[in-house]
Specification:
single chain, Major Prion Protein
Length: 75
């Protein structure tokens, strides 16, 4: 039961992070939701959060968004 709850908490956190980033990237509606799903899915590649950080930092660089890793980790 605890693992299931932990999974749900992390998935929700990742989705909210994806939606926050989508807003910074100028995405809305279905595009924002699709991006949030990409963010959630990216965290299944490796244990821990580093795969998620790598993915979104790459997206931030690609979009030239003014978000640094420190701000991202704080969010």
């Amino acid at each position: 039961m605890d693992q299931d709850m932990e999974f749900r908490v992390h998935a929700r956190r990742d989705k909210l992070l994806g939606l926050w980033l989508a807003e910074h990237f100028g995405l809305s509606g279905d595009d924002a939701k699709a991006y949030a799903i990409e963010v959630v899915d990216s965290n299944f590649e490796k244990p821990g959060d580093e795969d998620l950080i790598e993915k979104v930092m790459g997206d931030i660089a690609e979009k030239n968004a003014a978000i640094d890793e420190k701000e991202l980790r704080a969010k």
